[in-house]
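Final report, Chapter 2: Outcomes

The project's central promise was a pipeline that accepts a single protein chain and returns its three-dimensional structure in a standardized token representation, suitable for archiving and comparison. That pipeline is now operational. To close this chapter, we reproduce one record exactly as it appears in the project archive, with the input sequence first and the structure output second.
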Amino acid sequence: MEEPCKNKDEVKKEGGGWGARMLPPWRVNQIAYIASKELIDGNCASEEFDYKLMLAGKGIKLMSFSSFSPDRLAELRKVSCGLWEEGMCLIWTDDATGTQCRMIVYNDGRSPEEVQQIIFHEYGHIVLRHTQQSQHGEIEAYIFGAVAALCIAIFKGLAAMGIECRTDRMVQAIKRQLLPEEVHDEDA
């Protein structure tokens, strides 16, 4: 169960960091597998891969901070009780259609690599189905984002060397390395 959202001042009073908050190794492995599978399923091994297009194809709208007026951005920050000020993940139900809408808002004043990390951190909240702000949720999203960025870097490096990857084998190899034996049979 996730801990309820604490405001930034409460976190600072408690020491400001995640120090005493750690995830068990099995959970880190699960997140690494989920992130790598998301990217592999999104065809990150292809030369044409564009993570922003991948997310748009999943119905996630990406909006930069600069696309909002300062007042509107301040309103969004109030709605998001996030402890991280580089991005926000917003999920709501459209009253007219009843469909779930998802948007990632990110700080476009950062380098392209940092923007990618911010976006995948927020995407991690969506994929991992975080429903409220929590310290464990932030750690999980950070791990998701880091693994996603690493997958993209690895596949770009392999492609630059002319090495073709069989993504189905990659998923199975990652699963064997990261998940306990009893989990392997679920997706077989």
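Archive annotation: Residues 135-160 form the longest helix (26 residues).
This record, like all others produced under the grant, will remain available to the consortium after the project formally closes.
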